[in-house]
Design a protein that fits this description.
Blueprint lengths: L2 H18 L8 E9 L8 H23 L4 H14 L19 E7 L4 E8 L5 H11 L4 E3 H9 L15 H13 L16 E6 L5 E7 L20 E3 L3 E7 L1 H7 L1 H12 L3 H16 L3 E7 L4 E2 L6 E7 L5 E6 L4
Parallel strand pairs: 3-4
Antiparallel strand pairs: 1-5, 1-11, 2-3, 2-6, 5-6, 7-8, 8-9, 9-10, 11-12
Helix pairs in contact: 2-3, 3-4, 7-9, 8-9
Bound molecules: aspartic acid.
């Protein structure tokens, strides 16, 4: 090949380069949840509903500010979840449920779609924002899931991870729920009494670069024992993301693990070409209940479509569509 032809080829490649590079798109979207569960309009006072929805709005604002500034979906998810972990209304971070020993064991996970990197922690009790520790596992360890004392030791090596006394997570409301669960406890029922979970938090975001991330954080189930771990820190069950779909689940974790719920939603989109809404509805409303479980999920795809199915009486949730339309809701008929 002559030098002139080589030069022409080189120039041609140079001119066409923008066609091949993934140009940043302005499209962003964000969806969050504060848990699905058994709740009633009578039990949840109107003023409390307003407070909860204000907290959801705050989490949306935190994530959205990052997305609008061109930040990553990963940062948006981390920021939105950290706000919910700070709120005593949700079963994650401050306000986490009590286990059978009267303590707290917190679980969290996070996943970045386009790289499919993931990190998770289970059973931590001194980490103020478990979602940040899950992310540190992803970014600063060769592992995906760390549990208990080992996860705490890993946290000791990360100066950015804020630590608190285990009693920081205590709230009176959750203590009363523990008392109630203890009173109800029968010889066999133990940790899997329906309705003993509620208020897990999660977020899924699409950023301007077309990347998706998802995360979930929880205190698990009230009165849990034996170091029980639910779906929230299990990649594929509680959290999943790839380059075209992201999911965070909430509900009766044992069934979400058995259904590999978050992965199944994205797999249906990828393998079968199902719409996101159809895929999520099938898993949440048919597959999980058929096994005996209940709950909900939030999901988002690369076009910014959002879906939030649940089969419990309510699910705390909030969203911002690519066109900027946003909202929060608790019950199915909330505006
Ligand atoms: N899925 C969580 C767990 O089983 C609980 C919840 O979503 O509220 O630990």
């Amino acid at each position: 090949m002559s030098v002139r032809i080589l030069l022409l080829v080189f120039l041609g490649v140079l001119m066409n380069a923008p066609l091949f590079a993934k140009a940043p798109v302005a499209l962003t979207a964000l969806v969050i949840h504060g848990g699905a569960g058994v709740m009633s309009k009578e039990a949840l006072k109107a003023e409390d509903r307003l407070l909860i929805r204000a907290e959801l709005d705050q989490a949306l604002d935190a994530g959205n500010a990052i997305l609008k500034a061109g930040g990553s979906a990963l940062d948006a998810v981390t920021a939105a979840i950290a706000v919910l972990e700070d709120s005593p209304w949700f079963n994650a971070g401050k306000g986490a449920v009590f286990n059978a020993e009267g303590g707290h064991e917190l679980d969290a996970s996070i996943m970045e779609g386009h790289t499919r990197r993931a990190g998770a922690v289970a059973g931590v009790s001194t980490v103020k924002h478990p979602i940040k520790l899950a992310r540190a596992v992803m970014e600063h360890s060769p592992h995906v899931l760390l549990a208990g004392a080992g996860a705490e030791q890993f946290a000791d090596t990360r100066s950015e991870i804020e630590r608190v006394a285990p009693s920081y997570f205590d709230t009176e409301r959750r203590r009363q729920q523990l008392e109630k669960a203890r009173a109800l406890e029968s010889a066999q029922a133990m940790a899997t009494v329906p309705g003993t979970y509620f208020g897990t938090v999660g977020a899924v975001a699409l950023d301007q670069h077309g990347h998706i991330a998802a995360g979930t954080s929880t205190g698990g189930m009230t009165n849990k024992r034996w170091s029980r771990i639910g779906d929230s820190p299990i990649i594929g069950a509680g959290t999943y993301a790839n380059d075209r779909c992201g999911v965070s689940s909430t509900g009766w974790g044992e069934f979400y693990i058995r259904a590999v719920a978050a992965f199944d939603i994205c797999a249906r989109v990828e393998y079968r070409g199902d719409s996101l809404a159809k895929a999520a509805a099938e898993v949440v409303n048919h597959i999980v209940p058929k096994l005996g479980g209940d709950g909900g999920a939030i999901a988002l795809d690369g076009e910014g479509n959002i879906t939030m199915p649940f089969n419990t009486s309510g699910m705390f949730r909030g969203w911002i569509h690519p066109d900027g339309k946003r909202g929060t809701a608790i019950f199915a008929d909330d505006e």
